[in-house]
Specification:
CATH architecture of the largest domain: 3-Layer(aba) Sandwich
Largest sheet: 7 strands, parallel
Shape: globular
Number of helices: 16
Helix content: 25-40%
Number of domains: 3
Distance between the termini: 59 Å
Strand content: 15-25%
CATH topology of the largest domain: UDP-N-acetylmuramoyl-L-alanine:D-glutamate ligase
Structural class: alpha/beta
């Protein structure tokens, strides 16, 4: 069966599923494989749950009239998604970067949805499987699709770009994330810039933060760019006002008061404003969209509990985002401040040095009440209290009473530090 024929079947059953626990009636089940699972074995289960078809790549699971046998299910999913994208009129905006991708995506979606039929990556489905699944949610009436792209090694963004074929792109920043896979900061810049490489070689449009020297230099001679800046008058002016604790900013004499914690969220809001302006969304709708966005999923959330004011930013962490969170929290107007910092993952050989640098930075900034959690932080040289595991911290918290304070909770996803809140 060729790609065009398979696409005709997909249009009759436009719902792709890869998990038999989430099968919906008349969907198409893609029997993906992984190191510890074989989706082919669950094809019959998917069909019993009323999937229209199951796409498999092992003949022993073939059921005549119900399964479609292909050479490689994953490649078929990716090729079908790319073909589907080419058959639709939707404009694709791709996002990548070390920090802030998901928040930026959600803000752009909030703005563009005011005027256009818009879809966006759900959650963090931003890899070689998630990007194709996102593209397959494009409908005939979709006008704009915002596709988030994540990567932890070279050539990954290049590959995802070849699938999504974006018309526009934006890189949030170049920070110390996935240092192990990229081989250092230079590798990160090279890897993330693969989105630029695609856009420039195909003469597509680029959005940029012109106050980011790396972005501005890489795009200095490119014509099809649209950027924002606080200082450079050749770009669209957007001004940071405050972040105490919520970010406020100004464009075209309009003040926007967000529900986002941390000055690092300024650029996330600014690019959403810029893209809204590019697509002719009204100023009042842009303001309403940014102000109406509520952070969730442990990202830059402001929570009040037992007289504590908690900044919960525990969805993920790397040295760059940790540093930005500490700098922003240090400027918060509060007498009593407490830090709960958890291990940062995927740092490879640099893990020891990077954790030591963050502990030293927290001390230099004057944070006295600091709790470090995880095996990496447990091994740093510091006067701060250290806990090898979350359970050790949990047991300690049972023995003390914290006076009303502003609290920052920050760590990698695997640390699940949001659990601290219920133990305060």
């Amino acid at each position: 069966m060729d790609l065009a024929e398979l696409h005709k079947i997909f249009l009759q059953h436009p719902n792709a599923c890869t998990d038999t626990r989430k099968i919906e009636k008349n969907c198409i089940y893609f029997a993906l494989k992984g190191p510890n699972f074989n989706g082919n074995k669950f094809a019959k289960d998917a069909l019993n749950k009323e999937a229209a078809y199951a796409i498999i790549d092992e003949e022993q699971f073939h059921i005549i009239g119900k399964t479609i046998l292909v050479a490689d299910v994953l490649k078929t999913l990716q090729n079908l998604a790319s073909y589907h994208r080419s058959q639709n009129r939707a404009k694709i905006i791709s996002l990548t970067g070390s920090n802030g991708k998901t928040t930026t995506k959600e803000l752009i979606y909030s703005v563009l949805s005011k005027k256009y039929k818009t879809i966006a990556t759900e959650g963090n489905l931003n890899n070689h499987i998630g990007v194709p699944l996102t593209l397959l949610t494009i409908k005939e009436d979709t006008e704009i699709a915002i596709v988030e792209m994540g990567a932890n090694h070279q050539k990954e963004i290049e590959f995802l770009s070849s699938i999504a074929q974006p018309d526009f792109g934006y890189i949030t920043n170049f920070g110390k994330a996935h240092l192990e896979g990229f081989g250092g900061l230079k590798g990160i810049i090279k890897g993330k810039s693969e989105l630029y490489d695609y856009l420039l070689s195909n003469k597509k449009h680029v959005f940029l933060n012109a106050d980011d020297n790396i972005q501005e230099q890489k795009l200095s001679h490119y014509i099809k760019k649209f950027g924002f800046s606080e200082t450079n008058k050749q770009y669209y002016p957007i001004k940071f006002l405050d972040a105490n604790p919520l970010v406020s900013l100004e464009f075209e004499n309009i003040i926007v008061r967000t529900q986002l914690i941390g000055s690092y969220n300024f650029t996330n809001c600014a690019i959403a404003i810029l893209i809204g302006k590019y697509f002719n969304v009204s100023k009042t709708d842009i303001k309403a969209a940014i102000e109406g966005y509520e952070p969730k999923n442990n990202r830059s959330q402001l929570i009040k509990k037992n007289e504590h004011r908690i900044v919960l930013d525990a969805y993920n962490a790397n040295p760059s985002s940790m540093k930005a969170a500490l700098e922003s929290f240090s400027k918060l107007d509060s007498e009593n401040k407490i830090l709960f910092l958890g291990d940062m993952f995927e740092l490879g050989k640099t893990a020891s040095d990077e954790h030591q640098a963050i502990a030293s930075l927290a001390l230099k900034m004057g944070f006295e009440n600091t709790f470090l959690i995880g095996e990496n932080f447990f091994n740093v040289a510091t006067s701060f209290q250290k806990f090898k595991s979350f359970e050790d911290l949990k047991n300690y918290l049972k023995t003390i009473i914290l006076k009303p304070s502003s609290i920052l909770i920050k760590g990698s996803r695997g640390m699940a530090l949001e659990r601290i809140i219920e133990n305060l």
